[in-house]
């Protein structure tokens, strides 16, 4: 059983579909887009997989507790958590508001922690796998991305710290750092001169798609990655950041 947060579109949707194709039962979490989550569920089930959409605001402790308790009550077990739900607001520092700061940290950092806390409580004796979606911006931020990049830097640090803490319990924790990837959240960000520059920085010659990130998540959650923990793996098409 795998929970993928923020899975109604973009990278989360791609990962949920990939897990479904590999035979995992998938919880497609969404905050607001029920139609998007239902479409992901329909895609998984149409291909012979098993999936259910469950609403929860990942920045709300009550919602997160309800999500995990519902999943375990209905399905009996939890094996994998993919933390993907996130928000981004790109703006220069002198235009950023406190609300924008807190919203990004509440969803991107606190939300990951709340989900991990509940996953740890509900993993069985055999342990489990946690995959956190970070970003290339955590190590190579661009102007206007300071707060978002800071949240992803926190994710990278939390990933390593929790891998050390939870390893003795058989729980592996890793992160993926996607590069410049086409999603609804990045729509319009890759246009014009900036897009040309980002594309030139990507040796494989194109922007990523959610389907490019998903196989790395599947691998990290699989038994083939049983000796990998505490790593932040770049999935960037060779881009190093600008």
Can you say what the CATH homologous superfamily is?
A: NAD(P)-binding Rossmann-like Domain
The whole-angstrom Rg is 17 Å
CATH architecture call:
3-Layer(aba) Sandwich
Topology-level CATH name:
Rossmann fold
Average pLDDT reading: 94
Strand arrangement across the biggest beta sheet: 3-2-1-4-5-6-7
Q: How many separate helices?
A: 7
The computed structural class is: alpha/beta
- How many E strands? 7
**Helix proportion range:** 40-55%
Main β-sheet description? 7 strands, parallel
| β-strand amount | 15-25%
Distance between the termini: 38 Å
The low-pLDDT segments are none
Give the overall shape, derived from the CA principal axes. globular
What is the N-to-C succession of helices and strands? EHEHEHEHEHEHHE
Number of domains: 1
The CATH class assignment is Alpha Beta
